[in-house]
């Protein structure tokens, strides 16, 4: 308790004192800032004047240049723009006949970029010397006090020689150039530099640059935006290292070195702290190690604070019994820490010290009084943030204080305090409230000048309250006090928000007011329930709204509107029980309905009356909130009406609301009411369809069966009323303009008509309903013509379509009415009405009417076809249809109506289908042959008369007709000839057609010949090659297939093909088929294991023969054969086992010759004429892939599973050598792909796929993978040589450019394997250290080879080590391993960071 | 000229390969085994990493295996006294071999009394099934010990349970539900494992059998017999169309479909014997069926 008392005293005395001091210091600082700001304004003013003078001088020079250019006729004026200095510089650099005028010198000096700055940004070679270097260098070196890098750059850049033609300009030529601060451009390269390095203000000349900056590559952009090496190596690793060191020492003090006792541990940690502190101070003085030094200072102070804390609070180090003394010492250390770290004015130093101090305290606290250390740190942070304006630090302090407290609670009660006895409740609560009060006073008392600081302060204020509530919730033991706690806290926040000091900062006032209001509102549900909540909230909302209107305070007004809105949402949500009730009951809920309608009126009052009266107070947001009120009113009205009115009258009530909304939208010109009306219309429509129509269970089935439907009285009453309401709504909306209103009008009219349509359909029998609809169609058509209404016209079309479809009702086929077939009645009426409408519409003048008329004639003809189909016997249907088709074609051609001709085409198609499907199989020869022959003759006869004259598709239609006739005859032939002879017959028939075409030039015949030949081939392939029958003691298969093959080759030579196609080797289709048949026979005759070799040999012969004959298609056929051979080996050769006595596996002696063949063909394609062919096709490379694929596959199947990766790695090495010697990129691609395969297999098989029990250690997978990695690394020198070659000869295609950096793949592949091997195979304790060693080695390799990616990989490995420690080792390792790991890795990271800082210039040059 | 010489050289090499391939005394089978084995190996390797991460416990594995075994045992016909005696004999031999497994599970051995079932398979948790058709091909107790050791090692090295895990993942089965486990068909276990797993089971099974006191020659003789049977058993296609059909439907059935080439297994067994210096002069024990029937009658 004494610590608590001391803490309270510290708070009560210290905070006001600190606040007063901070206010005084803030005032001084503010005064100083004001003076500096005034001085800055003066500088800016001077700078503007200088720029204006410079600009006028530049304009004068430009004019002079223009005048000189105009005086010389040969000089193109367009090359010397006047207004821009850019082209001037370009011109100045070009050799021109104009003698260099003296005035041109300063211009060139101005526009040229400073070349000495380039090495800072890119590792490109030093830019060519320019004459401006002497001018810029002194300007930069004298520009700022932070000149470290620039000095280095100036020293590394070569001296700029003086250009012979452009003498060195004088310094006076560029006024202000020696003062880079005067250039109003932000320093560009500074953002790329690490925070630890001294900032450099670089003189920028971008406003005067003559050329646009070169476009950066993706890698450069990534490098600029994500400078990993600088961030990690030079910066973060130093911080990680010191964090790990301090944490490790803290753990060491707690659990290790038992023998030396508590005093010894304290002394040891003090010594460590002093070492860190002293070393940090020493290093901080050296600019190069400033960051490391500062982290050391922060870490040293943190360790000092922890040690002092541990002297009393950590049992293993307890050497002090007095809490007061310990608190005093802690306070002293904290003050010293603050005072010392503030000397450096670095948030890094101070923040790190506090972070580590918090962390070490957090891992060691045991009692609630130990939290006093955290409180002291919190006060210290507040003091620093108020004095220095480091408000980010305060946010961190808030997080640390509360989370520290929460961690202490969590250790005692992991599931929370609720339900447990908690004796430390009040001390804990007091400490939490003191935290909150401290940070809240800091928030209210601070003076904020920049918007960013205000944002940070806002975050701090929110986090303060949020974390207080969270921790209080976690330690809550009295839930009944929640209401009072929230109410009190809200009132306090609201009170703080109204303080004069707060109201000076608008953001603070708004934040605290809103926060207080939310908390007070949130308190209500903890004490009240049901409607009382809504009532209280509604009252509060109205009070806030009235206060906002009376005081013209927007915050109160918006809070009122917002709370009202939330209250409305609550009411709407509570009304869900009405909706739920309506799912199963129509019980009227009059009271609830009236309540909802009253609420609706209230919301509408807010939305439309108050807003209209005080319209000037409702800006955009307020207006939106009022609009939301309007919608809430609409929702409550909708539900209220549903509650009162039931059954069919619900839709009527909603229709009334819809009309009311429409009237409101029209009178108030309010679009939101219009949309509400639209939604109500949709709801009414749905309700009417679901409820009022009273659809029977199977309405469509009843209609189709012609059943008599039952009458519903309410339907007869309500449907016309609702239809009338929709028509009325459409009428009201006539005066409302806008596209949505027009759409709603149209939909309303459609809805009215639809309800009438439904009424007829539901109340009448099928045939009378169709006739009624036809009458309605006639009425609509005439009305549309009279009133020129598109909507009515469209409705007429829709109803016509429905009536037409209804005419196909099967019930009409068998039923009669007074002896008259219903089919005749309905279809006849339909056809008459459709033809009549076609006639009426055809007289219209609209362009669309022609298409519509055509549609109506289609409908009428369909009706006629349907009637004929049902009335004429099946055998003669095709013939009758053909007659109708001929009639339609002739009439259409005569009256020039194309749609009738189209109908003829469809009928012809139907005729063909009828012949093939029905007449072909009839037993009667008369019924089979007469229709076939007659229809074919008719098709031939009208082939040239089946369209209107000069129709665009006349030739096409004639072709189709003759093709159809030929097809019908061919079908007859196919149906009658013996199976084996079909192929030769068709082939000979095709040859005959080709010969006839050669004689008479009938243009359709070659195509028919091609088709018949194709059919013959299909027949031969599918039937004849399996035929084993004999004919005249000869093999029937041999005879028939030979005939087909001969005919195919004859066709290849004789068939007529357009010359363009022949030029494109189209006739070689026949040779392709011949070759296919030959290959098939090869496949049939050879042994399975020899087929691949045979195909490859066949492909080789075809390749050579194609070369001799200069036939490219033969080459292509050879490629196909070679590809088939490659595929074949996967199905026989690779699984062929050696026979007893066989010394060489058949896998080897049948697959490797294939590889030889592939490489031979590939080699032929790399030179001479064949190379041109290879460039047309990627076949050359594919064959090379086949060759390598054969070898790879043999290695896969012939080598033991775990050694496959080694075999492949050897192959990679061989491929790389081949690439180096032969200079063929294909081998590099194969090597890359194989490397990927090695990585995949190595990971999947050798690492993760190994046995669970039989670990063979270094003799097993370790050695295999290590050997694989070594082999891949052995290819690295070749890869670097290849990279040099590729840099000199860049690849031509994107695909090839992917392989321009082979050294990356060949580095990362073994690294991935080795890293995964370490991660999976090593013991857990060795993994981190092994990875760290690997990372360091990789970094060294990257430094030696100047490879940034290598270094980054090493950094990432080290980062993984850090992540692993944080995620796993810190929690799972035993204490001893943990602190050892922390200390060792922390030291290692610090060392790496020092190395990076030592060689940072070299690293940057290599970036 | 160089081109012509090179062409002739390639042609001669190809012709030689063609000659030797055409004059082989054995007709090699056409099948998709190469592709299937390769795919199975890769599938197994790729699925191994997630399997390692999501390893289920031995108790869970035993529960799943018991439920699967109960399902399969129920589906078998009622056993004759001879079959029961044969099963006892299998249990005796299997128990000796299983004592040398690395995981101490409750291994159980079951007979499938079907002379056409030339196969054996293992379920997770310790259940081993062997068909009477396969037993008909075994002439020594040492060979039986090798076959049972092979199946035991499929269980011991998690091959069986990993197959369950893969199947459950593919079919979205919840292995906590009995009905879900019942959806795993028996054909899954008869289909064999990847080539690598089969070789591993061969190696470890041979070691287990030898450790149990059996001769390594039992495995060698058995695999030699399998090699011979395989040559006789494989259906050889006569036409390209038959080959295509054979590849499509994978005409090989039973044991030879589910295991690598017997000749390769035989070669590996010889290599293991030589590498690990396993004794080869130990006499083979005869198949003691009569004794078992007699002792069962007692």
Major sheet details of chain A = 2 strands, antiparallel
**What is the 3D shape of chain A?**
flat
Biggest interface, CB < 8 A: A-B, 47 and 55 residues
* Helix-strand makeup class of chain B: mainly alpha
Weakly predicted, low-confidence segments of chain A: 72-211
Please state the overall shape of chain B, judged from the principal axes of the Cα atoms.
globular
The total beta strand count of chain B reads 3
Cα radius of gyration of chain A in angstroms = 47 Å
Order of helices and strands of chain B: HHHHEEEHHHHHHHHHHH
**Oligomer category:** heterodimer
The radius of gyration of chain B is 22 Å
The spatial strand order of the largest sheet of chain A comes to 1-2
Give the proportion of residues in helices of chain B. 55-70%
Helix content of chain A: over 70%
Mean pLDDT of chain A: 76
Distance between the termini of chain B: 87 Å
Approximately what portion of the residues of chain A adopt beta-strand conformation?
under 5%
Class derived from helix and strand content of chain A: mainly alpha
Indicate the mean pLDDT of chain B.
80
Number of helices of chain A: 58
Write the layout of secondary structure elements.
The complex is a heterodimer of chains A (1407) and B (298).
Chain A: H1 2-71, H2 85-93, H3 104-111, H4 118-121, H5 133-141, H6 148-156, H7 218-225, H8 228-255, H9 261-284, H10 290-313, H11 323-343, H12 347-362, H13 371-388, H14 391-412, H15 425-445, H16 451-474, H17 482-498, H18 500-503, H19 506-523, H20 531-551, H21 554-574, H22 576-582, H23 590-613, H24 620-644, H25 649-668, H26 671-692, H27 699-705, H28 713-732, H29 739-763, H30 766-787, H31 790-806, H32 811-814, E1 816-817, E2 820-821, H33 822-842, H34 848-871, H35 877-895, H36 898-917, H37 925-942, H38 954-976, H39 979-1000, H40 1005-1022, E3 1030-1031, E4 1034-1035, H41 1036-1054, H42 1059-1063, H43 1069-1085, H44 1088-1109, H45 1112-1129, H46 1146-1164, H47 1168-1176, H48 1179-1198, H49 1204-1222, H50 1225-1247, H51 1261-1274, H52 1276-1288, H53 1294-1297, H54 1302-1321, H55 1324-1345, H56 1348-1372, H57 1375-1398, H58 1400-1406
Chain B: H1 2-22, H2 33-53, H3 58-75, H4 81-98, E1 108-112, E2 120-122, E3 127-131, H5 132-135, H6 141-156, H7 159-171, H8 178-181, H9 187-190, H10 195-211, H11 216-233, H12 240-249, H13 255-258, H14 262-275, H15 289-297
Parallel strand pairs in B: 1-3
Antiparallel strand pairs in B: 2-3
Helix pairs in contact in B: 4-6, 4-15, 6-10, 6-11, 10-14, 11-14
């Amino acid at each position: 308790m004494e610590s608590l008392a001391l803490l309270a005293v510290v708070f009560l005395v210290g905070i006001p004192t600190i606040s007063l001091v901070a206010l005084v210091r803030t005032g001084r600082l503010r005064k100083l800032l004001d003076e500096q700001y005034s001085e800055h304004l003066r500088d800016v003013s001077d700078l503007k004047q200088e720029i204006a003078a410079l600009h006028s001088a530049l304009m004068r020079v430009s004019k002079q240049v223009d005048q000189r250019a105009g005086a010389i006729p040969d000089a193109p004026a367009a090359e010397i723009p006047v207004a821009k200095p850019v082209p001037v510089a370009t011109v100045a650099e070009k050799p021109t006949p104009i003698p260099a005028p003296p005035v041109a010198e300063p211009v060139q000096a101005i526009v040229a970029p400073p070349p000495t700055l380039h090495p800072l940004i890119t590792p490109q070679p030093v830019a060519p010397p320019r004459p401006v270097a002497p001018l810029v260098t002194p300007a930069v070196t004298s520009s700022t006090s932070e000149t470290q890098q620039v000095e280095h750059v100036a020293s590394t850049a070569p001296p700029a020689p003086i250009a012979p033609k452009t003498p060195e300009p004088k310094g006076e030529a560029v006024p202000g150039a020696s003062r880079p601060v005067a250039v109003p451009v932000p320093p560009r390269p500074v953002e790329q530099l690490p925070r630890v390095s001294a900032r450099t203000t670089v003189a920028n000349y971008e406003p005067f640059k003559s050329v646009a900056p070169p476009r950066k590559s993706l890698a450069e952009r990534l490098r600029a935006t994500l400078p990993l090496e600088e961030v990690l190596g030079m910066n973060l690793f130093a911080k990680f290292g010191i964090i790990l060191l301090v944490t490790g020492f803290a753990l060491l003090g707690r659990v290790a070195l038992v023998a030396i006792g508590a005093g010894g541990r304290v002394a040891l940690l003090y010594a460590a702290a002093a070492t860190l502190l002293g070393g940090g101070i020493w290093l901080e003085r050296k600019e190069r190690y400033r960051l490391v030094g500062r982290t050391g200072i922060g870490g040293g102070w943190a360790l000092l604070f922890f040690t002092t804390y541990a002297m009393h609070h950590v049992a293993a180090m307890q050497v002090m019994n007095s809490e007061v003394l310990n608190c005093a010492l802690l306070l002293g250390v904290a003050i010293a820490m603050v005072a010392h770290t503030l000397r450096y004015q670095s948030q890094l130093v101070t923040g790190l010290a506090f972070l580590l101090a918090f962390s070490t305290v957090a891992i060691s606290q045991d009692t609630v009084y130990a939290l006093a250390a955290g409180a002291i740190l919190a006060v210290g942070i507040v003091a620093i943030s108020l004095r220095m304006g480091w408000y980010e630090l305060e946010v961190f302090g808030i997080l640390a204080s509360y989370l520290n407290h929460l961690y202490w609670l969590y250790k005692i009660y992991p599931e929370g305090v609720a339900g447990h006895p908690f004796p430390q409740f009040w001390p804990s609560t007091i400490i939490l409230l003191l935290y909150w009060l401290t940070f809240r006073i800091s928030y209210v008392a601070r003076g904020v000048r920049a918007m960013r600081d205000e944002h940070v302060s806002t975050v701090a204020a929110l986090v303060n309250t949020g974390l207080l509530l969270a921790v209080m919730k976690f330690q809550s033991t009295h839930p009944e006090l929640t209401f009072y706690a929230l109410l009190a806290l809200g009132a306090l926040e609201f009170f703080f928000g109204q303080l004069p000091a707060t109201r000076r900062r608008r953001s603070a006032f708004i934040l605290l007011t809103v926060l207080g209001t939310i908390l007070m509102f949130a308190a209500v549900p903890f004490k009240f329930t049901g409607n009382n909540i809504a009532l209280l909230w509604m009252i509060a909302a109205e009070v806030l709204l009235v206060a906002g209107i009376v005081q013209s305070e927007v915050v109160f007004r918006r809070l009122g509107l917002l709370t009202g809105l939330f209250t409305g949402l609550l009411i709407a949500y509570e009304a869900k029980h009405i909706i739920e009730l309506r799912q199963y009951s129509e019980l009227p809920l009059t009271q609830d309905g009236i309540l909802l309608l009253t609420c609706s009126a209230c919301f509408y009052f807010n939305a439309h009356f108050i807003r209209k009266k005080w319209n000037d107070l409702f800006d955009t947001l307020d207006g939106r909130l009022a609009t939301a009120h309007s919608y809430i009113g609409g929702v409550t009205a909708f539900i209220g009406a549903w509650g009162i009115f039931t059954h069919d009258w619900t839709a009527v009530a909603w229709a009334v609301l819809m009309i009311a909304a429409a009237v409101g939208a029209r009178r108030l010109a309010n679009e939101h009411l219009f949309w509400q009306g639209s939604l109500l219309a949709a709801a009414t429509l749905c309700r009417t369809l679901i409820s009022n129509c009273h659809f029977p269970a199977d309405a469509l089935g009843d209609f189709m069966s012609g059943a008599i439907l039952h009458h519903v009285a309410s339907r007869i009453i309500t449907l016309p009323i609702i239809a009338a309401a929709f028509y009325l709504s459409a009428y009201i909306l006539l005066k409302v303009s806008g596209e949505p209103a027009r759409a709603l009008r149209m939909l309303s009219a459609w809805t009215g008509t639809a309800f009438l349509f439904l009424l007829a359909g539901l109340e009448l029998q099928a045939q009378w309903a169709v006739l009624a609809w036809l009458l309605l169609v006639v009425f609509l058509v005439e009305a549309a013509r009279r009133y020129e209404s598109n909507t009515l016209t469209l409705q007429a079309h829709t109803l016509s379509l429905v009536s037409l479809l209804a005419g196909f009702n099967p019930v009409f086929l068998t039923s009669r009415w007074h002896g008259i077939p219903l089919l005749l009645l309905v279809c006849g009426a339909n056809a008459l009405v459709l033809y009549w409408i076609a006639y009426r519409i055809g007289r219209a003048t609209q362009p669309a009417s022609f298409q519509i008329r055509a549609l109506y004639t289609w409908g009428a003809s369909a009706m006629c076809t349907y009637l004929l189909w049902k009335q004429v016997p099946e055998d003669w249907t095709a013939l009758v249809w053909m007659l109708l088709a001929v009639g339609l074609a002739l009439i259409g051609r005569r009256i020039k109506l194309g749609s009738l001709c189209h109908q003829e085409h469809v009928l012809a198609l139907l005729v063909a289908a009828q012949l093939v499907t029905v007449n072909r199989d009839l037993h009667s020869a008369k019924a089979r042959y007469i229709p076939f022959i007659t229809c074919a003759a008719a098709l031939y006869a009208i082939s040239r008369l089946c369209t209107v004259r000069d129709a665009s598709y006349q030739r096409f239609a004639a072709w189709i007709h003759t093709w159809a006739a030929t097809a019908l005859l061919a079908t007859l032939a196919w149906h009658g000839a013996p199976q084996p002879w079909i192929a030769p017959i068709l082939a000979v028939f095709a040859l005959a057609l080709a010969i006839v075409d050669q004689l008479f030039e009938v243009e359709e015949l070659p195509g028919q010949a091609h088709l018949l030949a194709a059919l013959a081939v299909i027949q031969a392939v599918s039937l004849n090659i399996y035929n084993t029958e004999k004919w005249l003691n000869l093999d029937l298969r041999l005879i028939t297939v030979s005939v087909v093959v001969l005919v195919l080759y004859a066709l290849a030579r004789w068939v007529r093909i357009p010359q363009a196609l022949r030029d494109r080797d189209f006739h070689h289709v026949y040779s392709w088929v011949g070759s296919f048949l030959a290959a098939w026979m090869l496949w049939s005759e050879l042994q399975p294991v020899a087929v691949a070799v045979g195909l490859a040999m066949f492909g080789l012969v075809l390749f050579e023969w194609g070369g001799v004959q200069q036939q490219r298609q033969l080459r292509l056929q050879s490629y196909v054969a070679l590809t088939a051979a490659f595929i074949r080996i996967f199905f026989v050769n690779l699984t062929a086992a050696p026979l007893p006595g066989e010394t060489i596996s058949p896998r080897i002696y049948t697959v490797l010759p294939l590889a030889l063949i592939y490489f031979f063909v590939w080699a032929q394609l790399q030179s001479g004429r064949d190379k041109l062919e290879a460039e047309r096709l990627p076949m050359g490379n594919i064959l090379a892939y086949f060759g390598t694929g054969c070898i790879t596959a043999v290695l896969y199947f012939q080598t033991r599973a775990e050694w496959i990766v080694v075999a492949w790695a050897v192959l990679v090495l061989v491929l790389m050598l081949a690439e180096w010697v032969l200079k063929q990129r294909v081998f590099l691609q194969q090597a890359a792909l194989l490397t990927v395969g090695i990585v995949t297999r190595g990971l999947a098989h050798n690492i993760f796929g190994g046995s669970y029990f039989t670990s063979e250690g270094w003799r097993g997978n370790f050695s295999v993978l290590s050997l694989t990695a070594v082999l891949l690394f052995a290819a690295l020198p070749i890869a670097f040589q290849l990279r040099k070659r590729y840099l000199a000869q860049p690849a031509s295609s994107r695909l090839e450019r992917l392989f321009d950096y082979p050294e990356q793949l060949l580095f990362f592949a073994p690294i991935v394997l080795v890293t995964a091997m370490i991660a999976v195979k090593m013991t857990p304790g060795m993994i981190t250290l092994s990875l760290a060693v690997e990372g360091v080695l990789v970094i060294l390799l990257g430094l030696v080879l100047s490879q940034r990616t290598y270094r980054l990989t090493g950094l990432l490995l080290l980062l993984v080590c850090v992540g692993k420690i944080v995620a796993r080792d810190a929690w799972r390792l035993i204490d001893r391993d943990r602190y050892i790991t922390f200390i060792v890795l922390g030291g290692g990271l610090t060392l790496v960071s020092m190395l990076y800082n030592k060689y940072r210039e070299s690293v940057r040059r290599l970036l | 000229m160089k081109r012509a010489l090179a062409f002739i050289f390639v042609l001669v090499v190809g012709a030689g390969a063609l000659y030797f391939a055409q004059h082989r005394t054995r007709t090699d089978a056409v099948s998709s085994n190469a592709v299937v084995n390769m795919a199975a190996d890769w599938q197994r390797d790729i699925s191994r990493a997630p399997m390692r991460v999501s390893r289920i416990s031995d108790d869970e594995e035993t529960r799943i295996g018991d439920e699967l075994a109960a399902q399969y045992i129920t589906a078998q016909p009622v056993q004759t006294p001879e079959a029961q005696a044969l099963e006892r004999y299998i249990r005796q031999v299997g128990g000796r071999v299983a004592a040398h497994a690395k995981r101490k599970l409750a291994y159980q051995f079951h007979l499938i009394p079907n002379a056409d079932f030339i196969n054996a398979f293992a379920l997770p948790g310790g259940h081993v099934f062997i068909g009477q058709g396969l037993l008909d091909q075994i002439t020594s107790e040492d060979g039986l010990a090798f076959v049972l050791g092979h199946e035991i090692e499929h269980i011991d090295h998690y091959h069986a349970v990993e197959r369950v895990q893969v199947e459950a993942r593919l079919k979205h089965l919840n292995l906590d539900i009995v009905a879900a486990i019942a959806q795993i068909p028996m054909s899954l276990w008869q289909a064999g494992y990847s080539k690598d797993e089969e070789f591993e089971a061969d190696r470890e099974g041979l070691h287990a059998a030898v450790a149990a006191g059996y001769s390594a020659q039992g495995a060698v003789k058995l695999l030699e017999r399998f090699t011979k049977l395989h040559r006789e058993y494989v259906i050889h296609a006569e036409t390209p169309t038959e080959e295509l059909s054979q590849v499509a439907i994978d005409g090989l059935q039973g044991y030879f479909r589910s295991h690598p080439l017997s000749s390769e297994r035989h070669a590996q067994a010889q290599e293991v014997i030589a590498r690990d210096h396993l004794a080869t002069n130990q006499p083979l024990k005869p198949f003691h069926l009569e004794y078992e029937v007699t002792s069962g009658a007692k």
